[in-house]
Amino acid sequence: MAIQNLDNVDSINNSTLFAVNQNGLDYNCTAAVVADFIQENTTLGDGKVIQYSSPISASTVAISGTNNSVWLVLTPVSTLATLTILLPQVSGCVANQEILVNSTATITSLTVNLNGAVGSNIPTSLASGGSFTLRFEPVLQKWYRVG
Questions:
Q1: Cβ(102)–Cβ(123) under 8 Å?
Q2: Residue 47 to residue 81: CA distance in whole angstroms
Q3: Percent helix, strand, coil in the chain (nearest 5)?
Q4: Would you give the distance in Å from CA 84 to the centre of its chain?
């Protein structure tokens, strides 16, 4: 295995190459690819998958995946006049599924597209540093604001 003879490094950046041996064959990939893999496949202790987005005004951020709870971390560069968050298709939502949203900047006009569901107490704006949590109830196919 050639990988065993590689030098160690003390720091990495996005272009640092990682060596991988699969079935006796050596490959490499960048640290950015490894970071994306970890982000897409990591869950928090409470089961939420972390999703990051740095949206611009008038854009739509789609919650990735269905069937799982998501922690959406919004990091816009500055205040957004408008933003739409697209929730998962209602047919793929499950009991007690949660969407937690945090934003580092103010969103003046927020639209939460319920994607076939109905909603209760859905926010229409978000302050800088603000957050909210929605929980899905499957019988009524309804998202409730719970935090």
A1: no
A2: 32
A3: 10, 40, 45
A4: 14
Number of neighbouring beta carbons within 10 Å of residue 107: 25
Q: Which DSSP letter does residue 77 get?
A: S
Task: Give dist(CA 71, CA 63) in Å, integer.
Answer: 9
How far apart CA 143 and CA 147 sit, in angstroms, is 12
Q: Mean of the per-residue pLDDT values for the chain?
A: 89
Cβ atoms within 10 A of the Cβ of 77, count? 11
The distance of Cα 60 from the centroid of its chain, to the nearest Å, equals 13
Residue 4 one-letter amino acid: Q
Closest-CA residue to 140 (of 113, 114, 107): 114
In this predicted structure, the answer to whether residue 3 has a pLDDT above a threshold of 70 is no
**Listed residue (80, 92, 90, 78) closest to 118, CA to CA:** 90
Its pTM surpasses 0.85: no
Would you say 121 and 95 are in contact if contact means Cβ atoms under 8 Å apart? no
80-86 sheet: strands from edge to edge: 59-62, 80-86, 107-113
Predicted confidence (pLDDT) per residue in 20-44, tens digit: 777 878 788 887 777 777 766 665 5
